[in-house]
Design goal:
alpha/beta; Rossmann fold; seven-stranded parallel sheet; binds nicotinamide-adenine-dinucleotide; oxidoreductase activity, acting on the CH-OH group of donors, NAD or NADP as acceptor; SDR_fam; NAD(P)-bd_dom_sf
């Protein structure tokens, strides 16, 4: 018996990278999963089905309200309900890094539109259905960069700071509804697009290893335990929190 048998999840940004790991892990625990991404989610859907799980795919841009409503409606149409929303989509590996004097309004707006507004829309679309059901888990994805600060990434880190603040506010706003809202804050994680830049990032990666209590690469698999915990009834008494998963750099 999986921990999530009978549950239905939507995972955004799940065609590649960490989101694909989240989608496969939720399915392996018994959840039916809508694999959503602006890119083609077909490979991940096929992987889940080949492993005996249930999944459907949808191409959706999280910065569009209509697209976010459509992916929640697909969960209901295909699997009858929505219990878990993982708002993972974000501009990260394709980020333009720039010092403030070189950072343009369009760079700022693009990152804010996907990373912050996208989380707002995904949560809003899910809340409507979860309120009626009287239960639900909304999981947002922040970053440890909110706590540490990083040069050249003010737009990205500000967008993730917005995600954390939004998570706290929404958790309180939904008090008494049965919906839990929590964030995961990953450290630098070697998802495939990050791995492709290992040579460029080698000094940063080495510095992260030294700073960690667990002194090795962080992999997408390292985030799966936290995701399943926040998606399952094991975390029913936890809301409004940000769970840091970074091998022990940021300590609370
Ligand atoms: N990898 C890391 O080191 C790290 C660290 C902290 C937080 N994060 C966060 O974790 C999440 C996943 O990271 P990743 O390394 O897999 O990133 P990634 O860049 O490899 O993947 C991001 C995914 O989001 C999708 N996406 C982008 N814009 C979208 C949009 N408008 N609508 C829908 N989907 C869209 C992309 O197609 C891609 O599949 C992101 O939110 C990222 O900010 C990553």
């Amino acid at each position: 018996m999986g921990r999530l048998n009978g549950k239905v999840a939507v995972v955004t940004g799940a065609a590649v990278g960490i989101g694909a790991y989240y989608a496969r892990a939720l399915a392996a625990e018994g959840a039916s999963v809508v694999v959503s991404d602006i890119a083609d989610p077909g490979t991940v859907v096929a992987q889940i089905r080949a492993a005996g799980g249930q999944a459907s795919g949808i191409r959706s841009d999280v910065s569009s309200w209509e697209a976010c409503q459509a992916m929640v409606q697909q969960a209901i149409g295909d699997f009858g309900r929505i219990d878990i929303m993982v708002a993972n989509a974000g501009i990260y590996s394709q980020l333009k890094r720039a010092r403030i004097l070189d950072l343009e309004q369009e760079d700022w707006d693009r990152v804010m539109t996907v990373n912050a507004r996208g989380v707002f829309f995904c949560a809003k679309a899910a809340v409507k259905e979860m309120m009626a059901a009287g239960s639900g888990k909304i999981i947002t994805i922040s970053s440890t960069t909110v706590a540490t600060g990083v040069p050249d990434l003010t737009h990205y880190v500000a967008s993730k700071g917005a995600v954390e603040a939004f998570t706290r506010c929404l958790a309180r706003e939904l008090a008494g509804t049965g919906i839990n809202v929590n964030a995961i804050a990953p450290g630098l994680t070697m998802s495939e697009n990050v791995e492709a830049n290992r040579a460029v990032l080698s000094a940063t990666i080495a510095a992260q290893h030294r700073a960690r209590c667990v002194q090795r690469d962080q992999t997408p698999e390292d985030l799966v335990g936290a995701l399943l915990f926040l998606a399952s009834s094991d975390s029913d008494f936890i809301s409004g929190q940000t769970l840091t998963v970074d091998g022990g750099i940021v300590l609370h």
